[in-house]
Amino acid sequence: MNSSFILTSADAIQDAILQHESELESLDRAIGDGDHYINMKRGAQAIVEMQPELAALTPDAVLNKIGMKLLSTIGGASGPLLASFFMGMAKVIKEKGNTSITSYASAFSAGVDTIRQRGKADLGEKTMLDVLIPVANQFTALAAQNASAKEISTALKLTAEQGMLSTKDLIATKGRAAGLGERAIGHIDPGAKSCQLMIEAVCNLIQ
Ligand code: ADP
Ligand code: MG
Questions:
Q1: 2 CA distance to ligand 2 centroid (A)?
Q2: Which residues are within 8 A (CB) of 146 and not within 5 positions of it... i.e. 6 or more apart?
């Protein structure tokens, strides 16, 4: 994972978010306050605009700067959570280097753990973590088995999709939807949907 892969991923993520405007907006309108699409769009745009400044940096510095930028540009609950993901990832890439699939898997898991700690949430609470935790676990397991990048990206897309769909039948115990009780049932969590889209977009870059 070099810096140019991270920048290409930012473009792919921005495209995926822009292509799903109505879906992301209506999901957050149903069980939140309707701003999730705007938040994600603003964040993606800010990162894409930083590309010239990021291109010369090392991967850990790129990830850290992305985190800091997201903290200052995305509002709502999702801003600080996504920011902490990139900062958590940056730490591990700095320690373990950016050349092995196992270090990417550890970095991804560390990013997810940072979200978990910051949001005080876990699996089954109808949040983005219902996508991120299963993906992190599978990424770690497949990396340990020496699976190829292509095998891993194919598997993670499927797991992200299953995690996103699993939020439909859950009651929310964190975030704005937590106040809705059973009324949240039947709706996919917007943060889970945007995380699934981002994972799919990045996995699609891996041949
Ligand atoms: P807000 O809820 O402040 O309007 P967004 O609409 O941008 O912010 O983001 C909402 C998403 O944030 C939810 O769909 C959920 O996935 C995620 N979220 C909210 N609270 C938490 C939490 N404590 N832990 C993990 N994810 C959370
Ligand atoms: Mg919202």
A1: 33
A2: none
Nearest CA to ligand 1 atom 3: 76
Dist CA 19 CA 52 (whole Å): 24
128, 189 Cβ separation under 8 angstroms: yes
Show the domain range for 148: 3-203
User: If you take atom 19 of ligand 1, which residue's CA is the nearest one?
Assistant: 175
Task: Determine contact, residues 29/80, Cβ cutoff 8 Å.
Answer: no
CATH code for position 51: 1.25.40.340
**How many distinct structural domains can be found in the chain?**
1
CA of 166 to the centre of ligand 2 (A): 19
Q: If you take atom 23 of ligand 1, which residue's CA is the nearest one?
A: 119
Quote helix, strand, coil % in the chain, to nearest 5.
75, 0, 25
Tell whether pTM > 0.90. Answer: yes
Q: For every one of its 207 residues, what pLDDT tens digit does the chain have, with 9 covering 90 and above?
A: 899 999 999 999 999 999 999 999 999 999 999 999 999 999 999 999 999 999 999 999 999 999 999 999 998 899 999 999 999 999 999 999 888 999 999 999 999 999 999 999 999 999 999 999 999 999 999 999 999 999 999 999 999 999 999 999 999 999 999 999 999 999 999 999 999 999 999 999 998
For the Cβ of 67 lying below 6 angstroms from any atom of ligand 1, the answer is no
**Cα 77 to averaged position of ligand 2 atoms, centre (Å):** 7
Q: What is the number of the ligand 1 atom nearest to the C-alpha of 195? A: 16
